[in-house]
Write a structure and sequence with these properties.
Shape: elongated
Low-confidence stretches: 1-25, 121-144, 261-270, 567-573
Number of strands: 27
Helix content: 10-25%
Structural class: alpha+beta
Strand content: over 45%
Distance between the termini: 122 Å
Largest sheet: 27 strands, mixed
């Protein structure tokens, strides 16, 4: 027994001395490592390495391989690094294994490969009985053959790096697992995009079947705080199931911080200027940009948002479930608090249909007029509530096709409200001027009572057939009817403003005809009786609401109207 122990000790001493001698040679002449590193990295054909600078190896306290001016090539792209540090595990070296516990790349530039190459860049699924690095390196060599050196990577760190794309992304520090294993591993990122600092942190794990699990993956910036949890399946078709939690998101601040336009490259000296490009097509004829995205992946996503700021308005308590499968998108339910009140709805998009089909159901039964007007930067000194209802369907791949095929019903109603005269002047000022009505005091500021607003209609083939609409204020009653042709972007609307003067009504029928962008207002002698202005408020409200129940208007006040003295006072101002 004693002799056996002595023999074992002598054998171990010889191995240690041999290893020490080999390491001493490598430390003394580190360039001898270059061919070995290049061959090991390129062995499976998935990646390559070029060592253009000096290389060195330090042993204490742990082995670290240092190199400068290094280029790493993978199917996902190319990384050029000013400095390369490979932290090595010592024990696997005894088994002809090089285990890089962490690879540090400093002053690195990442050149992404084309998208089709990136989709094939993910490594094959490894056995989950052992960590990825060990499983790839521990397969026994065939009997009678010497075992080859193997190399594996556990983690990657990038510092002071950037991405060589049009997107201005610079990485301050990135730590991530080289190949996530079955146990969750932390990933952290500190970076800047277009000068906006942000951080990303969370956990990532690899699951059987080419899937990745994300836990608490959170992006935080001054403009927002968004978290992601779920599972991403990479094959056979990308699919993600999980939850997005938007704690806060200021889209206004984000737009302000991002660059508005990329600078066009300057023409070289003496180079003739490029011919002027053809004018861009009408926006109504441009393909809907989101339709191709519906084929990118399948989604089963719950979305919850605390606060989202857009165009100066804050939207709260957003909740929806997004399902996307076989190019069919469903948002059901869709709930949110907009300035003024709650909105609910259901949206469906079938991009697999020919042409693509869409339906929208929207219900906003009580939107406070003051906050709602303020969200559109209108005068907000208003009281009361606005009711909005819509059941719409359309088909087409461009905005024009959608508008030309639109069908369904829409309605807007309000009762017992108070409107700022400045807001009414925006809506009715031109009508009052064209009708040559006596002044009604809108220019003097203040408020006007709105007893009844009812506007709605049936839509078929992109043509809105307006129900007899009514707006009844304490100063003026306005009746309306006609059609809006959304496909042709034209309108033919009859307007009947009626102004009460003393105990009488002054009625001036008008027509509003022409393109939607610039219609012309003109007298309409065919409406001599002014019947549109005499529609009862209750019946107009019932049509606008589509039979839904709603608050009733207050009893009509005696039709005192404006006196001659009131008119003279307004004219004298």
């Amino acid at each position: 027994m004693k002799r056996a122990l002595i023999a074992l000790a002598a054998g171990l001493a010889v191995i240690v001395l041999a290893l020490a001698a080999a390491l001493a040679v490598v430390v003394a002449a580190p360039d001898r490592l270059k061919p070995l590193v290049v061959a090991l990295v390129a062995r499976d054909g998935r990646q390559s390495i070029t060592l253009d600078g000096p290389i060195s190896l330090s042993l204490l306290p742990r082995p670290v391989l240092r190199a400068e001016r290094v280029t790493l090539g993978t199917r996902a792209g190319r990384i050029e690094a000013g400095q390369f540090l490979a932290h090595l595990a010592l024990r696997p070296l005894l088994s002809r294994e090089i285990v890089v516990t962490r690879l540090d790349l400093d002053h690195a530039v990442f050149h992404p490969a084309p998208q089709e190459a990136i989709s094939n860049a993910l490594p094959e699924t490894v056995s989950h009985a052992a960590p990825a690095s060990v499983a790839a390196a521990s397969a026994p060599a065939p009997a009678g053959k010497p075992r080859h050196w193997r190399i594996s990577l556990l983690a990657l760190r990038l510092t002071d790096a950037r991405v060589a794309t049009a997107a201005p992304l610079s990485i301050i520090r990135l730590d991530l697992p080289a190949l996530p294993g079955p146990s969750a591993t932390a990933i952290t990122l500190d970076a800047r995009y277009a000068g906006i600092p942000f951080s990303l942190s969370g956990m990532i794990a690899r699951l059987p079947g080419d899937a990745l699990s994300f836990g608490g993956l959170r992006v935080v910036a001054q403009q927002g705080d968004v978290a992601l949890d779920g599972t991403l399946h990479l094959a056979p078709h990308p699919a993600f199931a999980g939850k997005v939690t938007i704690h806060r998101l200021d889209l206004d601040a984000l737009r302000h911080a991002l660059p508005r336009h990329a600078l066009a490259p300057a023409a070289a000296a003496g180079e003739a200027p490029a011919p002027s490009a053809a004018p861009p097509p009408d926006w109504r004829d441009r393909p809907l940009a989101f339709l191709p995205l519906l084929d990118a992946a399948d989604l089963d996503l719950a979305v919850a948002a605390g606060t989202v700021i857009e165009s100066g308005a804050a939207y709260h308590d957003i909740a929806t479930h997004l399902a996307l499968h076989d190019r069919q998108l469903v948002l059901d339910p869709l709930r949110l608090e907009v300035p003024g009140g709650a909105v609910s709805g259901v949206l469906r998009v079938d991009a697999a249909a020919t042409p693509p089909a869409m339906t929208l159901h929207l219900l906003a039964p009580s939107l406070a007029l003051g906050p709602l007007a303020g969200a559109f930067h209108w005068p907000d000194e208003n009281t009361g509530a606005l009711e909005i209802f819509a059941d719409l369907s359309a088909a087409g791949a461009t905005p024009r096709a959608l508008m030309a095929s639109l069908g369904g019903r829409v309605g807007v109603a309000a009762v017992n409200a108070t409107l700022a005269n400045r807001l009414l002047l925006r809506a009715l000022g031109e009508i009052v001027r064209q009708a040559r009505l006596p002044p009604i005091g809108l220019e003097s500021g203040g408020h006007t009572d709105l007893r009844c607003l009812a506007l709605g209609g049936e839509i078929a083939g992109g043509i809105v057939h307006l129900d007899p609409a009514l707006a009844e204020t304490s100063r003026l009653t306005l009746g309306a009817g006609g059609t809006l042709d959304l496909g042709a972007a034209a309108m033919a609307v009859r307007l009947v403003p009626s102004l009460r003067i003393g105990g009488n009504a002054l009625v001036v029928p008008l027509r509003l005809d022409g393109p939607l962008a610039a219609p012309k207002l003109m007298p309409d002698p065919d409406q001599g009786d002014g019947a549109l202005a005499a529609v009862p408020c209750e019946s107009a409200l019932a049509r606008a609401r589509g039979g839904r129940a709603g608050p009733a208007p207050a009893p009509a006040k005696p039709a005192k109207g404006l006196s001659l003295r009131d008119i003279l006072r307004e004219l004298a101002k």
